[in-house]
Amino acid sequence: MVKKTQSKDIVCGVDIGTTKICVLVAESIEDGGDFNIIGIGQHPSKGLRKGVVVNLEQTITSIEEAVGEAEMMAGVGIENVYVGIAGDHIRSINSTGVIAISKAGKRHVGENNLITEHDIQRVLDWAKGISLPMDREILHVLPQEYIVDDQPGIKDPIGMSGQRLEARVHIVTGAIASAKNIVNCIKGAGLTVQDLVLEPLASSYAVLDEDEKDLGVALIDIGGGTTDVAVFFEGGVQHTGVIGLGGENVTKDLAHMLRTPMHEAEEIKINHGCAKISVASNDDMFEVPGIGGRGTKEINQEILAEYIEPRMEEILKMAKQEIHKAECWPHLSAGVVLTGGGSMLGGLVDLGEEVFDAPVKQGGAQISGNLLDKKKTPMYATSIGLVKYGMDSHRSPVSFQGDENKVFNRIMERMRDWFNEFF
Asked: Could you say which of 22, 104, 277, 411 would form a disulfide bridge with 305 (CB–CB 3.0 to 4.6 Å)?
């Protein structure tokens, strides 16, 4: 089959996870902001640990396999991709920048105190002027609110009059080496990175609506190697964090407790796993294969839940600690949204409501077409969010060849405009 060249109407999102590489190819629908998924590629992830590349060659091979599968299904050759980045090297901090309204470039007296895009750029530059270790770089600068003179709570100050402009922002940083290795893997697979996007933010773009972000909501994306947290309030990002535990830890627990191979433990978790003992079934009986040819044994879902619940409770409690760092827990009226492959365990919503003492739901993305099973959208939340971002960006591909030390400055400039959409 001859593959078509990737056009501007076709976007590809690549979620480089600890346990799997997921690639989605989407085509925009004319006269609308929606899109159809036309290709899906998935391959076991080898060469990563907790979202960080530990073997470049294995990671490149895994990406090539997943991309090739998606290309075959879509009938399109992929060249440019939007890539998610996560890992426990991610750190975040809130910062503030203040400037006097500039009169430069304003021709008339009446325009002297009007806020322009140039003023927004200046105040955000001041806000990101924080001291960082030499091995870290800014990935995103996400505006929370602007203050014009003494008036807070402004989301878009352009065109307003004032003497003093203040910006409160959320800054996400990452280890330079870790992010460069992600970019190098994408390049090694023969692809061009259009943008790197922090994965919990990409997931939020897929599963949260504006009302939830305004009222206050915590998104918990439970992946294979890590669990990502993003807290929103009044339309802005208040906190992001990464926990070094995920669904893979549950699989390891089961493999150890049941004395079964890892791949068998993963299958048992997917087909019979339950995160809450009180809702598990005694009647769901299944066989557990032994290691090295040893015999099988039969257990039920309730016994399985006894192994799963403690680990999932630990992950949720650690996520709760991250959420409290945002210092706006009492204002999260929309509660907690769980997404990611790890959120698909039965009984997890019940366990979440017990841990958080707040409304909890499983978050899935709204998509068009029948190619992707609607029930499995939490597993693809990051990939769908990357595609949604790509559809909205309308930017030319950016090559990362040349001075890679400037990669993240370019990423930050592009990402700032996108996250203004939260306002």
From this structure: 277
